[in-house]
Amino acid sequence: MEESEPQDIAQETPAEDVFIAPSVHDHEVLSGTSYTHHSALPSMVQTDLSTECVLGVDEAGRGPVLGPMVYGLCYLPNRLHKSLLADKHRFDDSKVLTPKVRSNLMEALCTPGTDLFESCGWATRVMSARDISSDMLKPLGAYNLNAQAMDATIQLIKEVFALGVNVKEIYIDTIGKEEVYQKKLERIFPTTQITVAKKADSLYPCVSAASVCAKVTRDAALEVGYRAYHSSSEEPPSSAAAWGSGYPSDAKAVTWLKQNMDPLFGWGNECRFSWRTAKDMLEGKGNGIEATWPDLNDDPHVMRMTDFYVTALAAGDDEPEDELSTWYGKPVDESVF
What global pTM score does this model have? Predict the structure, then answer.
């Protein structure tokens, strides 16, 4: 299953005092429910909805075995795109910024009175580990991670248009082949200039800002999720100290998984059971309890629903008719008339 590794575990690990953004909904995070959060329209856009805006989309947490994958979106007036985000506030790919710097930038985006708050709107789609895994493990018609990610991106953009924002340019970090993804988006948003590119989070400031929104939301969601493992009477350590980055190559994450695995149920909503790391631990020798489910098709005493919908037997047959099949009468042809 999907498992990708970050270039730098330390950069992927949440800050010890990460800003808990308003995009972190405690109840949904703890229950393993996916959800969407939108900021209020920034005043510079709300006062004049004809203002031409640029919009960027990026994700955080595609490869970890612990925690959600988050899609972030950021939009602002086109005229401020580079001067505000790149020149003044130095937004960059969230994997390049230190955990503390990206946390501070997110806090500025959420603080009334700052130039970022007045100019930028943003949104996130938090895709829970539980939902990612259940979709990927469907026995029929598995919903792969690329498809989930693409649908989340499209839905976020549609919701911004629905708010009345005049989006003229969209920049997105690619999922799969850039040209295929870009053509699909151009069919959905035909009046908007769309650019899909590799490393878009390093090339376009609005994608950099979206990357920060996604990464800090994921970091904070890890923090909230980890608190569930501690009683209210004690001061819980940060998730960074126990889960680290959440990636399979992170010793902290793997150690925590090994030490906190229930032999029957595995882990809670924070874990992606479809990841090889989790599956190998559960299926490893002496680790998990194997459950064998009976094959009901082999049991002659078990009736299937289809057994109640057999067709009526032809006239003259020695076998009795099935009562339910003629409950509402028998079909007739034109000869009776």
Answer: 0.83
